[in-house]
Each structure stands twice: as C-alpha cells, then as structure tokens.
Amino acid sequence: MISVLTPTGTLGYGFDAQALARGMRFEPDVIAVDAGSTDPGPAYLGSAEPLCSRRVVKGEIAQLLRSARGAGIPLVIGSAGGSGRGELVDWTADIVREVAREQGHRIRLARIYADISRERVEWALARGEVEDFEAGFAVTRETLDDTTAIVAQMGWEPIAEALDAGAHVVVAGRACDDLAIAAYPIAAGADIGLATHMGKILECGAFSAEPFAMDVMLGFLHDDHFVLEPGSLGRRASLKSVAAHSLYERENPFLQRGPGGSVDLSGCRFETEGERRVRVSGARFLEDSVYRVKLEGAGLKGYRTLCMAGIRCPTMIERLDELLENARRKTVEHFAPDVVTPSFRVYGRNGVMAELEPTPRNGGAHELGLLMDVTAATQELARAACHFLSGHLLHVAWPGQVNTSGNLAFPYSPSDIDAGAVYEFTIYHLMTAESPTELFPIHYDDV
Amino acid sequence: MSETRTLAELAAIIRSKNAGPFRLTFDILFDDERAFLTVVTANVISRDTMAALFGIDRAQISSIHVLPEGLAIKVTLIRPRAQCAAGETDVYGCQQHVPLMNLSVPLAGNYAPTRG
Q: Could you give the percent of chain A with pLDDT greater than 70?
C-alpha cells in the first residue's frame, strides 16, 4: 500500500493545520501538491508572475516541509508558481531553500524545468510532430513570433527520476496535475492507471469531499483499488462527492488524456467504505504508441487600461448601445493609424455571459455598470485612448438628454486604471517527445 | 397539459466551468434517480435544445454525456472565445450556468417532486 497526502488543491490556496496534522498520523509515503494550471488564464504564463504571493506560499511550504522532514518523506510540488515557468521553479526553489535554512534541514532539492524553446517547437513542426489539441488552429512560425513563453506538461517520469536520485523536495515546472501527485506511487511500482486516477482526484485536495474545500485529502493505493479520505474529520468522501469530482473541469468523463497515454475510466467502480471513505477501482492506463506532451504557449497582445463607471440616467440606458458604438468608433478613428482596441462590458445586462446571455436586453435595469477598456501596443497609448473613450462618454450629448453635466458616475479618481500586459493563449497543442524525460532537465542542489 | 418543473428544481447541482482554455463544460448532478430519469426521458438536454438555449450553432456543442451511474448529465461547448481572448467576461467560466437552471422540464405521469 502506498499513501499520498495532498494538502490542498493549489499550493497557496490554504489548508487546515489540524487536518494536516491528522493526515500525517496516517504516515503517508509522500506529500504531493500542484501549484497551478492554465485555469487562471494565460497572463501567468506570459508574465512569469506567481499566482499566489510569496508570503502565502512560504507559509504553506514551511508547514509542508516541517511535516515532510519530520516524517522523513519527500515533498513534491508540481506546476510551480502557477504556470510552471522556469522563473517560477526558481522562485519556488528559493522559498524552499529559505525555509530549509530557517528550520535547520539539510535537504537535496531537485528543480525540474518544463520550458520549451522556440527552436525545439520549430524542429518538431518541420517533422510534422505538432498537432492541435483543442485550440482550433495550427501552430506556425507566425504563431511562434507571437509567443512569449512555452511550457510543456511533464508526466510522472522526470519527477520519479528526481525521487530516485534521492531528492527530498522536488520543485517541478509545468506538470500534468494528476501525474505530479501520482509520480511517487508510480515510481514505487503502482499501477499507472490507478495511480493517475487517484492523482486526478487528489489534485484538487478536498474538493472531492463534502463539504468541499481547499484542504487536506489522502489517497491509499492498493494493488487493484485506492481509497480516499479527507484529512479533516469535519469532512467525508462520499459516492456523490467523488463521482461529482470525476466530472469537474473536463469534457470526457470516461477518458483522461495525459502525457504518454490515457486513462480509461469507463470501467470504474466507486464504493463507500465506512462513513468517510470511498474505494475506487477499475481505471486502466492505455499507453500511446508515440509519447506526446501538451504544449501551452502565451503571447503578449499589448497593454490594457480600464475604467469603471455606473450609469443611472434612463435616457442614457435606453440608447446605450448606440452611444457605446459611437464612442468606440470615435476613439479608434482619433488614434489611427495607431491601433487601439476598445471594449465594453455592461453589468446588469450581459456583462457576465455576453453572447450566451438569453435574457432580453431591454430588461428595465434602473442602473448599469459599465466596464470600459482599451488594449494597445503600449501602456501609454492604452491609457490615452481609454481616457479619450471615457471622457467622450462622460460628456456626450443626445436628443432628450435631461442632465447635461456628465453621464458617468466614476467610483475612482483617477478613473482610468492601467491594468498592464495582456496575454492570450497562442499554443495548446500536442508535441512528440523523444522520451518522457527529454524535455525536462533536472538540477540538484544540496541545501 | 403536463406539469413542468425547472431544471433547478430537479437537479442538486448545476454548474459551469472551463475544461481547458477552449471548452466550457456544464455538469448537472442529481440526488434523486427519478428526477434524473425525468430529465433524461423528457429529452430537454440535446444538441438542439442547448444550441437554442445559449443562442449558438449546434456545431458549437462539443459533446453531451449522460451518466446513469453518477446520476449526471454533462454538456460541453466550444468556448465562444478562447479563455482571456478579447471580450472575455468570465475567466473561469463559472457563471454561465443560469440558463440551464431556468430550463423547463415536463413531468411524466403523476410524478411531482419538490426541491429537497
């Protein structure tokens, strides 16, 4: 039996100290946690900014390292810093070193990088070894021109190699969430399908328990099944909570694709074991004939300045679409030939669902929230255009206007706020790798 | 004329979420097998009804899965725009579920559930 403790769904999102203490009493073989994914958006990959603050992440690493060293077990952190870019592997490793020094531990630290060079992707393109995953477009040289950063999702193999080399702490760059959790059990000889399925459920921490939360979850992996139990006695794993989680954030509930293969979940069985545990069996690993990894790329699209305002006058609300379209056009024309791209979200109407909103527009709102923004090649240009746009709407006139002193209620001064660099996903594709470890160099230091 | 309930009255959980940056997935989870079967038999969740509900083309419905073991129905759309592409309104895609809550489901026979 191999047991894994996952403290939370994302390193930096918190867990209960007592739940960790209780979980550690089960004497897990490893503490494994992931620190991110693409879910917070492409900006974290493009900018290499950490998803969570250093202060919060350090606080959690301090608790996890103390627990891991106290029990003499390894600590694995996947998708370091959020996007798993190299800068964030270094950022996380720096925190681990600092905590190790403060707590007086001597550790072997492994850093695994998942950054992929443009040249490596070009080489793969030339060999026809890049294919679309779900992006709906092909990667070309132009795509690469527009791409700021590329990472690949590593599988369990590089992490297992670092553990085999005696690493006490593994800080991995972008890693498949499930496999960062499953790496230790697979390295210890567990069934890949079962371990990956267990990793898939554990990677969100106690999100698979009820009541759900970012909290401690444990997995106990046997030869032909695994058992899940939350760390906190205030939670339980139930058939409903575990089954619901099997659907979460994914399209196909029966097939989980990952580096090197897929896990077939169509034959899975879920059974309760006592009050707080669920037993899961039946996952099967289907190895791909070619080892492929998922690439994630983000590109800089410009800089954004935004402005928020409230609109209360019914004479403006009733002709808002026309006023916004005129303001957009005038702003674009004023700054031409420089390109500025204004956009609007109208809260109280369709600010949340945009084109998917089924509620008719003339719903009779007494007040609307207007979020304006402009994206342009430089921050200065975005700010200038956003001020032009909001200034135009502030003072624009229309027939039947009652109040001629100003149309927008701004909550702030300055009313235009620089929002910084704007990134978009440019790559979400599969690339063939020569081996599971080829793309993911490992560095060790003894701290 | 048959009686109807909204999907929110029949399901325990109705939620939306990104499934990667290019997909938006909806989970409809039931506590009660009869409520689940009522919705499945009424055939209110199909490519046609979902396309009409969200005002999109059928081709934008990526998949629909019905899971009797899990008392769940899963609908996945191709996101109207890639996550964080120009015009983004919901980075996590977690507030797109409300049209499903309001979906009208005809009840069969004398079944008249109340929300538990």
A: 100
Task: Give the residue from A133, A238, A353 with the most B CB atoms within 10 Å of its CB, the best one to mutate.
Answer: A353
Partner residue opposite B82 with nearest CB, options A244, A249, A425:
A425
**Contact, A76 vs A172, CB < 8 A?**
yes
Q: Which residues of A102-123 are buried (b: 16+ CB within 10 A; e: fewer)?
A: eeebebbbbbbbbbbeeebbee
Q: How far is CA A305 from CA A321, A406, A420, in A?
A: 21, 21, 7
Locate A191 and state its tokens.
Answer: 């069934």
Cβ count within 10 A of residue A337: 4
- Taking alpha carbons only, the member of B62, B22, B24, B88 closest to residue A294 is B22
Interface of A with B in 85-144 (CB under 8 A): 133-136
- Position A84 pLDDT exceeds 70: yes
pLDDT grade, residue A417 (50/70/90)?
very high
Checking if the pLDDT of B115 tops 90, the result is no
Q: How many CB atoms lie within 10 A of CB A385?
A: 25
- Contact between residue A83 and residue B84 where contact means Cβ atoms under 8 Å apart: no
Write down the pLDDT at residue B116.
Answer: 43
> How many residues in total does chain B contain?
116
Residue A361 near chain B (CB below 8 Å): no
CA–CA separation, A218 vs A421, rounded Å? 39
Nearest residue to B52 (alpha-carbon basis) of B104, B112, B3: B104
**pTM for the full predicted model:** 0.94
Which one of A133, A345, A355 has the shortest CB-CB distance to B80? A355
Do residue A353 and residue B84 have CB atoms under 8 angstroms apart? no
Domain boundaries, chain A: 2-113+155-287, 313-408
Considering only CB atoms, A39 lies closest to which of B18, B29, B31, namely B18
CB A48 within 8 A of CB A88: yes
Ramachandran angles phi, psi of A263, nearest 5°: -110, 125
Please report residues of A whose CB lies closer than 8 A to that of B99: 356, 358
Chain A residues with beta carbon closer than 8 angstroms to that of B29: 240, 244, 247
Touching A: B residues 56-115, CB under 8 Å: 56, 62-63, 65, 67, 69-70, 72, 74, 76, 78, 80, 82-87, 89-92, 95-96, 98-99
Classify A224 as helix, strand or coil: coil
Dump the DSSP string for A137-170: S---HHHHHT-SEEEE-B-HHHHHHHHHTT-SEE
